[in-house]
Design goal:
The complex is a heterotrimer. Chain A is an alpha+beta fold. In chain A, the strands form 3 sheets. In chain A, strands 4-5-8-6-7 form a 5-stranded antiparallel β-sheet. In chain A, strands 9-10-11-12 form a 4-stranded antiparallel β-sheet, with helices on both faces. A 3-stranded parallel β-sheet of chain A has the order 1-3-2, with helices on one face. The longest helix of chain A is centred in the C-terminal third of the chain and has 20 residues. By secondary structure, chain C is of the alpha+beta class. Chain C has 5 helices and 5 strands. In chain C, α2 packs across α5. Classes of the chains: A alpha+beta, B alpha+beta, C alpha+beta.
Chain lengths: ~350, ~900, ~170
């Protein structure tokens, strides 16, 4: 039986209290929202916070407001995102969240938690004994170090994915982040030191498996704002099973079409192929022209270089890279209105979402 | 070391040498030949299976001492009833072809059915996991094991078919003997005073032989003779088309590949010969090998073979103006397709046995694909007349084109000539892989156009094949690739160039399909890409383009008859659309394959029917039985004409009569051999009518001769091109499951006429098995010119449990130039396969695949065999 | 107040309608407290990492994985476990249907399926096969192949619907 390590438990009554508790913890405190990421990590000793700051009584984090834009509290559960009919207009968000893990997990996991999801790797997401047998790894370098955000030392441990590399290559595995980045979402970070600051969601992430967020250890992610800008959006996820699995690849796209199908605005994001979600700069190349076959092919050719999956998650990495091309083209075809039934089976499956209950 | 065990109920005590395998002990010391050596000491083919203490045990990978005190049962030791059930089941189901692997399967069948009287097909397939069969595709083997189980349940004995008319599923000639391991292959034969030979091979792809020191080997106890190039009295070089292949490389000469032979040892036993061969000290001066055909074509590249430039041959197929037609096309696609080197992996490694006979002559027991070519080349090597060599075919344990070139026949004959004693040389699996020619890796640049409706306008293709160190039939393989470059499709303008380029890699030569599978992989790939552009499906674009009577083959030959491709497409149409409608990923490929080598070659069918004094008829012919069932089919032709029972005919292949037909190749043995049988049998039939019985005809010889000399050499100026005598056609569907794994394979084949439908299906099923390996898992990379691995699992041939459900549909579009309307079916089974798989994978994951094997595809990954795809992380890990 | 060094967390928890005061080690999950401190062993340990669904319970009416929820987080909340499913001696229609349809083989995953299915039918009494499949997609079963489970949920839904319409 795996039991979490010992910790001090603090219940915050407000976001400000939570921020204060983090500041007081001096890097040894972590936030507990749904717990579906932190608790297993604590059981496997991947993360060993001394102080756990519970957010369950912070009501302000569980609010959803529509006021010319959508504002979602970070503590809203994924199941509530799925249930809320008002949120369905954000197709990519709905499809991404509805495909996270399983209904049982979505009932506790929160949107903020999924955005801050720990990066994943075959050499990291293992129990303590397994990792000890390979002499641990860079991201969780053994019993002395505590691999939470606060650990700043890059020197210890070997990255078994790329042993000569100075960095960690664990994979960003959040489904909601690529979707929300495509939708142009901004997130609010609150700290007792600086108060609230709001940044574009893509700026929340670093391309580094260990330090994968720009959020400081004393900051609380409180809110996600999504503009209402008339985009059509979607999210495709590659995984082995129809439930449970983290993405082996995720592609989100949001496009606004003007007259005669000319693209006015486009954001395409790749997930699970790097340590952060990748907002593709070539998205702008789509603007000002119709989404013709040629335009899509050019875009796919130009963006294929971004997907650099490594051999540290499910499926063969070379195949994942090839599938990223299928998905990059596929999301655009879906958004321009192609019949998804004519797509290759894998794309057909990715474009077809079974109606989720929770 | 003494070992005592109970063998088939009898206590045995034998003396074994250190490290001797149980298989060697059984074969060499106990006279048990049902256990075969397919891959010793790998334990990966299953041919050597016995029951040891009632459990299945491979014997090649354990020392004989492990049998101490054990009870061992082989097929020889089973009771007559069980032997009959096993033999009849495999024969009734046509669950064997060459039969080399079958005793192992039969032993396994006994064990499976002893354990479980009602095994499912899936359970059987999994239980067969240590076994390899390269001929059958396992379908009919599993059928056979189901029959064994049924018989043991008491629900009815298997009944091999005795109907021998054309169109009947007559039981395979010598099928029972093969199943039980009683039929001897060359390595199962021994002669009094027989010596064993061993070869010394070059470990280098290119080097100068500075010095060969055989003194230590000669001094080794038990060694009778060590031979080098100096001992060869005749012409040291042989070859099917060029005499460029040295049987033994001399001091001062170059070795050109890792299969080159520098010395031969003959000793009292095989182990001694091999030990002595390791004592031959060869000093080499290393030279930089040419390993890439594109490098070989560069200015200043070392010339691989002094007899010809590195571009061994250039085939040009040109009709009309492809460039202009492409410019005017509504849609054009292009790409570069690459295929890999493939090992034939017949289960029986090469073996030859030569004995001295009267008047200074030699008797050669060969398992080659053309014993008259063997005789010619051996005689030349020995420096004797062809009369001095009597060649006898010992039907082989699989060939697939890999036993056309000489392997050990000449060296074996030489040692016999030098020692005056019978000599046998049998290759190990590793030596076999190093020596015999492979399937060509070909790089193909294609550009193909079509009009707005998807009708093809032009094909432009450039092919470069790596033909390796010796010419073999490489120029012909690329000629065939060029000839089949347009597949079975109507193409108005054609511009194709196919080069065979020499390198220091293992030679490439004939292998089932002979250039056509490569070309089809590219051409059908283009068709799928065009279909997408036009907005129609894979079936439809093929339907709009396949050839009909009156259309042209790529070379310009007008198809005048027996074009069944449209019928094969119709045969799969409903299935194709039903599977797609069910949401499954389906791929489709069409194929054409010549029957008869044509291209201006003279080809023969030659037969003698000799009425013996026991009222039987010996049926002599010049083509080789290698599992395909030729001898059974020839008997059926004779039965159909004469009305005699099939048991009256005894097929024989040797050089008693001058029946040289060249190689058993190009899907032509049934086509021409069958016609020759009809020719001879007609004469016999008339005599039977006149004289009433065979007894009255004792001693009479009836000749059947067919000469084909009406085909057209490439580039010949003529107003009537006839490239090949006949063509087979096929359409295949590959259907994947929802994870992208192989699920079902459907093959519709126009075979002209199925003389024996069971054997005919077997050819197709076995080809599909080989084609799926070609598509997904098989490869033989040769870094530095040496195969990277000799392990059978790395080579990647599919096992029983890897096979999808396989459905064969035979379509009969009668061939007027074939016997009873038949045409050859030996090769075409794998011609469209890779393209069908590639199409299905594209339907699954949208990825176009241009390179074989498609080892990174979900379908291949699910099989878990073959060399693993290399990844940067793994390379780094390996480097550590 | 004296605190034992190991049992230093105290919460009030309503389990199957009965409110309990509990003292336990703070690093325990809800699953561990249910099984070890309350003796409710109907909820199973499967993987302890959120990958199987064997530990599903209803928390404030929603099916969640008790192995991923710290017991501390449940202060003042309502938990319903498999033990609370039957109404005294009368089995829940889902339990009857599971038994009738052969939806349980080894039975280890069954409590998780039952409480998840109950939550589904509480919310959607006329759940379609597609909704049932989706709702149960977080529960692994290694024995049945799921078909009988889906059929059992459908049968229970039909029975419950019939009862209500009477």
């Amino acid at each position: 039986m795996m039991r979490a390590g010992r910790f001090r438990y603090v219940v915050a009554k407000s976001a400000a209290e939570a921020a204060q508790a983090l500041a007081d913890g001096g890097g040894k405190a972590m936030l507990l929202a749904g717990g579906t990421d932190l608790v297993p990590n604590m059981k496997r000793r991947q993360q060993m916070p001394e102080i756990v700051v519970s957010l369950r009584q912070v009501a302000e984090l569980r609010e959803v407001a529509m006021n010319g834009e959508t504002a979602i509290g970070a503590g809203v559960t994924l199941a509530d995102v799925v249930r809320d009919p008002r949120l369905r207009q954000h197709g990519a968000l709905f499809r991404a969240v509805a495909q996270v893990a399983t209904p049982l997990i979505r009932n506790t996991a929160t949107l903020g938690g999924n955005l801050c999801l720990d990066t994943r790797c075959n050499y990291y997401d293992q129990n303590y004994e397994w990792r000890r047998a390979i002499d641990f790894c860079k991201k969780a370098p053994g019993p002395e170090a505590v691999a939470i955000d606060a650990v700043a030392d890059d020197g210890d441990g070997t990255c078994w994915v790329a042993p000569s590399s100075a960095r960690c290559w664990a994979v960003s595995s959040t489904d909601s982040a690529p979707a929300l980045i495509a939708l142009g979402a901004r997130v609010t970070l609150l700290s007792s030191r600086d108060g609230a600051r709001e940044i574009p969601l893509e700026a929340l992430f670093h391309d580094d498996g260990m330090h994968y967020m720009t959020k400081r250890a004393d900051e609380v992610l409180t809110r996600v704002r999504v503009p209402h800008d008339g985009v059509r959006s979607t999210y495709w996820k590659l995984r082995r099973r129809g439930a449970f699995d983290f993405p082996a690849l995720g592609v989100a796209a949001a496009v606004r079409f003007g007259t005669a199908g000319v693209v006015e605005h486009a954001r395409v994001v790749l997930g699970a192929v790097a340590s952060k979600p990748l907002l593709l700069p070539e998205s702008s190349l789509l603007v000002g022209r119709a989404l013709t076959d040629d335009a899509i092919a050019e875009f796919v050719d130009a963006t294929a270089r971004w997907a650099k999956p490594l051999d540290n998650t499910d499926f063969l990495m070379t195949w994942r890279k090839q599938v990223s091309k299928l998905f990059l083209g596929g999301v655009l075809r879906e958004l321009r209105g192609d019949d998804v039934q004519t797509f290759p089976l894998l794309a057909r499956r990715a474009a077809t979402l079974r109606n989720p209950v929770w | 070391m003494p070992v005592e065990f109970v063998l088939n109920g009898q206590p045995r005590k034998i003396e074994t040498r250190e490290g001797e395998s149980l298989l060697d002990a059984l074969r060499n010391r106990c006279g048990i030949y049902s256990t075969k050596d397919g891959c010793q000491p790998q334990g990966q083919c299953g041919c050597c299976l016995v029951l040891m203490n009632a459990r299945p045990q491979l014997t090649c990978c354990i020392p004989a001492t492990r049998a101490q005190g054990a009870e061992i049962v082989t097929l020889e030791g089973l009771d007559d009833e069980e032997r009959k059930i096993l033999a009849d089941s495999f024969v009734a189901a046509a669950g064997l072809q060459c039969g080399f692997c079958i005793p192992g399967f039969a032993m396994r069948a006994k064990h499976i059915t002893d354990q479980n009287r009602r095994p499912t097909r899936d359970e059987i397939a999994h239980a067969l996991d240590v076994h390899l069969c390269r001929c059958t595709g396992y379908v009919k083997i599993i059928d056979a094991i189901e029959l064994v189980a049924r018989a043991k349940r008491g629900e009815g004995l298997p009944e091999p078919c005795e109907d021998a008319r054309v169109g009947a599923r007559l039981r395979k000639f010598t099928g029972s003997e093969l199943t039980l391991g009683d039929q001897k292959f060359v390595d199962d034969m021994t002669l009094p005073g027989m010596l064993h030979g061993a070869l010394v091979l070059s470990p280098h792809a290119r080097a100068k032989v500075v010095k060969i020191d055989v003194s230590s080997a000669e001094a080794h106890s038990g060694v009778v003779r060590v031979a080098t190039a100096k001992d060869v009295r005749g012409n040291r070089w042989y070859g099917l088309l060029h005499n460029d292949w040295p049987g033994i490389v001399a001091e001062g000469e170059e070795v050109r590949c890792v299969g080159d032979i520098v010395a031969v040892v003959a000793a009292e036993d095989r182990a001694t010969a091999r030990a002595a061969a390791r004592l031959v000290a060869v000093e080499y001066e290393l030279l930089t090998p040419v390993l890439d055909p594109f490098d070989a074509m560069k200015e200043g590249a070392p010339q691989v073979n002094p007899d010809y430039p590195n571009i061994l041959s250039k085939t040009i197929v040109k009709r009309g103006d492809a460039d202009t037609a492409l410019t005017a096309s509504a849609h054009v696609v292009s790409g570069t397709w690459k295929t890999q080197r493939i090992e034939h992996l017949y289960l029986e490694p090469e073996s030859a046995l030569v004995e001295p006979i009267e008047n200074g002559r030699f008797r050669l027991f060969s398992q080659g694909q053309g014993i008259f070519d063997d005789r010619r080349q051996v005689a030349s090597f020995l420096g004797v007349s062809e009369d001095a060599v009597h060649a006898v075919l010992v039907p082989n344990g699989g060939a697939f084109g890999g036993k056309e070139d000489m392997s050990v026949q000449s060296q074996t004959a030489l040692m016999c000539q030098l020692t005056g004693r019978p000599v046998k040389i049998t290759l190990s699996r590793e030596e076999s892989i190093r020596i015999h020619p492979k399937r060509h890796p070909i790089t193909m640049e294609y550009t193909v156009g079509c009009d707005a409706e998807g009708r093809l306008t032009a094909v432009k293709a450039r092919m470069v094949g790596d033909t390796g160190a010796y010419a073999s039939v490489g120029s012909k393989v690329l000629e065939r690739a060029g000839g089949h470059s347009c597949g079975p499709y109507r193409v108005p303008d054609v511009d194709v160039e196919a080069l065979a380029v020499a390198t220091n890699n293992p030679p490439c030569g004939a292998m089932r399909g002979f250039g056509a599978p490569q070309a089809h992989f590219a051409m059908d790939g283009c068709l799928d890409m065009l279909a997408e552009k036009v907005g129609i499906d894979g079936w439809e674009i093929r339907w709009r383009n396949v050839v009909d009577v009156g259309d042209l083959f790529s070379t310009g030959q007008v198809f005048e008859k027996s074009v069944g491709i449209r019928k094969t497409l119709l045969a799969v149409r409903d299935r194709y659309y039903a599977e797609r409608a069910a949401g499954r990923a389906v791929g489709i490929g069409c194929g054409i394959k010549n029957s008869g080598i044509g291209n201006g070659a003279k080809e023969w069918g030659r037969v003698r029917l000799v009425v013996e004094n026991d009222e039987t008829v010996s049926l002599y012919n010049g083509y080789t039985e290698m599992g395909q069932g030729l001898l059974t089919v020839l008997v059926q032709c004779a039965v159909e004409v004469t009305g005699l029972p099939h048991t009256s005919f005894h097929p024989k292949v040797d050089s008693t009569f001058e029946l040289g037909c060249g190689q058993t190749t190009g899907s032509r043995a049934t086509l021409f051999g069958g016609r020759a049988v009809i020719d001879a049998a007609e004469k016999l039939r008339i005599d039977l009518v006149v004289h009433g019985s065979l007894a009255a005809l004792s001693g009479k010889v009836y000749a059947g001769e067919v000469l084909i000399d009406d085909t057209t050499a490439p580039s010949t100026r003529t107003d009537r091109i006839k490239t090949h005598t006949a063509y087979g056609f096929a359409t295949q569907l590959c259907i994947l499951d929802e994870e992208g794994r192989l699920d079902t394979f459907v093959a519709a084949h126009d075979v002209g006429r199925a003389i024996n439908p069971a054997l005919c299906e077997g050819q197709v099923e076995g080809s599909i098995h080989m084609g799926l390996g070609y598509a997904l898992t098989e490869d033989l990379p040769c870094p530095d010119g040496m195969p990277q691995s000799f392990r059978l699992r790395d080579i990647g041939a599919l096992r029983a449990r890897h096979m999808p459900k396989t459905e064969v549909i035979l379509v009969e579009e009668s061939e007027p130039e074939g016997p009873f309307g038949a045409k050859g079916v030996g090769e075409i089974g794998l011609v469209p396969t890779a393209a069908a798989v590639a199409g299905a994978l594209h339907a699954f994951d949208g990825i176009r695949r241009f390179e074989l094997p498609m080892r990174e595809s979900p379908a291949a990954r699910a099989l878990g065999i073959g060399l693993r795809a290399s990844t940067p992380a793994r390379e780094k890990a390996d480097a550590r | 107040m004296r605190r034992s060094p190991t049992n230093n967390a105290r919460i009030a928890l309503t389990v199957n309608g009965e409110t309990k005061e509990l003292l336990f080690a703070p690093n325990k999950t809800l699953l561990e407290v249910l099984r070890e401190d309350l003796g409710l062993t109907g909820t199973k340990h499967g993987c302890e990492l959120g990958e199987c669904g064997a530990c599903a319970v209803l928390l404030n009416g929603r099916p969640v994985l008790s192995c991923l929820v710290l017991a501390l987080e449940c202060d003042g909340r309502q938990v319903e476990t498999i033990e609370g499913l039957a109404d005294d001696a009368r089995l829940h229609p889902l339990q009857e249907a599971f038994a009738d349809c052969g939806a349980a083989q080894c039975g280890y995953c069954t409590p998780g399926f039952l409480v998840t299915a109950k939550a589904l039918l509480d919310e959607r009494p006329n759940a379609t096969r597609g909704e049932i499949t989706e709702a149960l997609s977080g529960n692994l079963c290694r024995c049945t192949g799921y078909i009988q489970i889906f059929e059992a949920v459908e049968e229970a839904a039909a029975k419950m619907g019939a009862k209500e319409s009477k």
